[in-house]
Structure formats: C-alpha cells, structure tokens
Amino acid sequence: xxxxxxxxxxxxxxxxxxxxxxRERGITxxxxxxxLDYCQxxxxxxxxxFVVNVVDTPGHAxxxxxxxxxxxxxxxxxxxxxxxxxxxxxxxxxxxxALKMGLKPIVVLNKCDKDEAWGRIEDGEVEMELMETFDSLxxxxxxxxxxxxxxxxxxxxxxxDMDEARELASGKKERKVxxxxxxxxxxxxxxxxGITAPEVSPLVxxxxxxxxxxxxxxxxxxxxxxxxxIATGRIYSGTIRKGDTVALIPRETADxxxxxxxxESSAVTGLFVNRGVNRTDLDPPVASAGDIVTLAGVPxxxxxxxSLTLASNPVDHALETPxxxxxxxxxxxxxxxxxLAGKEGTxxxxxxxxxxxxxxxxxNVTLSVSRSASDAERSTIHARGELQLGIxxxxxxxxxxxxxxxxxxxxxxxCKETGVELEPFEEVIVDVxxxxxxxxxxxxTGDRKGLLLEMSDSADGKTRLVFEIPSRGLLGFQSEIATxxxxxxxxxHLFLENRAHAGHIGGVEKGKMISNAAGKANLFSLANLxxxxxxxxxxGDIVYSGMVIGENSRAGDMEVNPVKAKxxxxxxxxxxxxxxxxxxPKKMSIEELIGYMSDDEVIEVTPESFRLRKTELDSGxxxxxxxxxxxxxxxxxx
Length: 638
Prior knowledge:
Strand content: 25-35%
Shape: globular
Oligomer: single chain
C-alpha cells in the first residue's frame, strides 16, 4: 500500500514511481511489480532462497479498477506510514480493499528518526490512529494483530524492537556496516514470517487429471514492437514453459461453454520477470504456480481479466476476476478544432485521437470509449473521476496530440423499481490546517450539497473533516479549496453508492472575459482588463476570437479586445509615459480546467499549452444560442 511519502522530495532515486508524471506529482499512477531473489540468513548463514514479488498500486479511488485487479495477485500487504504524520487519508481505499479480501497486513512506521516522530509513538497517538483506521475499515481480529516494523529508509535500518528503534532514532546506537540484525533484512524476514506463501489449490474441471493444468489471469496487457502481444499476471496453477501453446478464455465465458468453444491460441515466445523496473528473461524459461510473470506471444485479442491456459490441457472455466466498478464521469474528446490547430502538435487528426483512446482501454479497465452521439469526429470516454481523465489527457499531450476536451458530465442512472433518477455519491476526507476548516465546510456544505459527518482535531494543529457529497459537487472543488486554504488541504474521495438525484448544484457562476479579436495580447489592453478581473494570458500570448482570456469580476461574460495597442500620434506631453503593470496570469492544470469550465466551453490541449475557449467561437452564434436556451427554460417552467 503506497502511503504517498515521496511527495515533495527529490525522486531521482525512486525505482517504482519511475514515470515522469509520477515523479512530478509524487503519486503512483500505474501499478508496478518487481521480483526480489532473497537469500535468508539463519544463524548468520545464507541457506534459504526465496522469491518475493513486490507490487506497488495507486492509492486514489479514481484508479479503483487497477487497484482491485492488482490485489488479486498478492498474499499480504505492507502499510507504510510516516511516523511523524500518521496514516494518510489516501491509504483508506487500497487498505479497505486489501482487508476485505482477507489479506494479512504488516505496518511499517517509516521516518522514525524525525524529531517529532517519537513523541507521537510513545504517546500511543500513531498506534491509536492505526487501530481506528483498521477498525473503521472492517478489519477482523486476526488482521488487527498486525506486526509493526520501525524503520528509517533514509538511514537504512529496521527493527521490530521499539526500544532498539528509539536508540537508533536518537543516535545513541548506530548501525554498523554488515550488521544485518537491524538492516532491511528485518523487514524482508518479517514478510516471510507474517505473509504465507501462495496457496495453490487444484482447479476444478481438469480435463487431464494426471497433470495440473496451467491457468493465469491477465492483469496487464500490452504490445511490444519486437515481442508482439504481451500479458502479465499471476500463475494460479500448473507450469508454463517457453514454446508452450496457450489458449485464451475470455472473462465473460460461462463454465460450461469452454468445451464447445474454438479457443484462440498461440505459442509463448518468451517468459520474463521484472527486476527493478526492467523486464528480464526468466532463466531457465519455466514458471510455476505463484510466480508473477510476463508472457510474450499471447493471443492477439487478449484483454485484462481474460484467462490463459495450455491448449493441450485446458481448464474448463475462466478464472474469477473482480468486477469493474461503474464509471461516474463522461467526457467528449476530439481533435483540436481551434484556429491554432496543427501548429504545436504532431498528431492532430480525429482518427489518431480515437485510436489512442481505444488503446488506453487495454489496461485501464475502468475506462470505456465510444463514438459521440452528437459529433462523429469526437469520442465519448467514461471514467471514474477528474484525476483519471486529467492524467490521460496530460499523457496524450506529452505524446504530441492536439485535443479538444468538452465539459465533464456526471453519469446518472434510473432505479428500475421506483423510476427515480440516481446519481453517484462519494465520501470526502479533507485534512487541513484548523484555521481553514471553516472555509472547507462552507465550500462543501453550501451550494455543493455536501453533508458533514465527522470532524476531529489533532495535536499538530490539523483538522480532519469527513463529508458525503454528490459527485457533481466535487467538480472544480480542488482548485477552489487550494486557493481558500493556501494549498494546505489534502483531499481524498471514495465512491459510496448511487442515491436519489440531489437537484441543482452551484451558485452564481462567475463570468468570463472573451476575446473578440485575434493576434498577440498587448500590454496596454491587458493593463486595463486586469482592473476588471483576473487574467489567464500575459503580454505576447497568442489569442483568437472566442478564447477565454480571463475571469470577469462580475456575473456574465464580457467581450474584450486584448490585442488593442495604444494609439500613437505626434503630440508631445511634458509628463513621462505612465508605467503599466499587469499581474501574473492565473495558470491552471488540466484537472483544474476540467472542473472550472462552463457547459458552453471546451479546453484546447496542445503539447505546448492549454487554452480555454467557447465551443462556438462566433459571438453572434453564441448570442442566438443563449436566447434559444432561455426560451426553452421559460417554456419548461410554464
């Protein structure tokens, strides 16, 4: 379970969080698995060889589908906690899923050498927080009896003895070179002792009872330019060798259908394992039950959740995989259609964009893509939240795509029994400085229709607030709360259930400043406009008609000319030219823009910039559409 301890520190030495976005944001976005060949020491002698597979998962609820399928590959969890800060809110989702699956936890209190850590440990504050977290997540009696390892990853020591840890943290005792009794071997030995080896149970429905059939569920799939189609997963039974022929069983296959199916098959061209983040050949190329391996040369139509088995000795049913949680958000994405299209990116056609979106669904099982019903050039994508969509768009931008992104829509359903419209509700946990707790409550319990469930203060001057709120109420919340709390709030949310529609959400929407001319923004115009609102552009930026260049301080949109220059003449004055000043423009991330834009706006995304613009660039067409909308609303009210 990733506790998010890497945020805000230098990440050059990190192995698991190796992606550029992961290093920049300090979070885990994609799961990784690595294999450790560990030789255990008993009485100072190395005489037991073990293989330990370490899996790192995302912690955010937006990546729920990836978390659930990754947890099916493991037999236990290590909860890494900052001893000075305690259990973080973002741990709740992954830990709850692990506990629900009956996995045995091991708690690692890291950064015990911090000055403020031992006061919290000796007062029992950290232990109490952990016990409350486990209890609230439904841990059973066996899971509550977890082992605690005290450690300092930076100093390279670990121990299960609290007194010894205190001496190491205070500097009274130092770890000597070669002293394995307080090295990271303690953590690995605790894992070997506390987490049982994979249990391999014979599968029912064996065609050839003389040999246990090979069965593996595909957890991740991909394509390699040299190896072809590849799949990674845990082997549940049997043995696989390089050159064996494997057959594909789709995840939806019923138990009695396999015998009558013509299964797609192919020969395994390679067996690989991950060491660090590098894929290496397995030597010898043989893997058995309990191993997590990557197979090359698997059938072309394999998808996440499908099962692989030997064609010569197949199982008669697909392996059970966790169901996919329903999406809560939809959005339309298409090629860039602005006047600046094609000037900054290399992949600009709608077919390129659609192919990229479909390829993303290979591994990202919580995403689904379909053609837009309103525009054939766009694709509708269904996802779990703003963060998941924002990261996908950011990845595509860095790959050279130019996109047009429409406003997000919450996915509603209808109750079959009552006919009532339902919408998703979420639990929101906010950790914030106590002085800002009032601002958080005002933001969530007002127009956003949130309900405060719990409020608790800690000794370090922070307050934890727990809310229940419609998913619609969270759109745009992150940017608002970051401003209101000066960036000190940590917000995490978790899907609860579908409930009756909460009605209209939102107060008076702020107006926008919309450019009515094309060209480069001029300092003279921007200085005057800055007095009427907050700008999104600076001097010299390229703008065009219909582009949103700022936020109006009053309600309602305002047409402005940001390219107008100061008139020149041959008239002279005694006074000096007045010095003009323009405040720095407000820059927003993709996720912030997704929550900020109005229904009649879209985001233009290119490898070099983000621009917010109106869907209809022509001001006359916008005015006619606005009048038509008002007439329809008046007719509906009647």
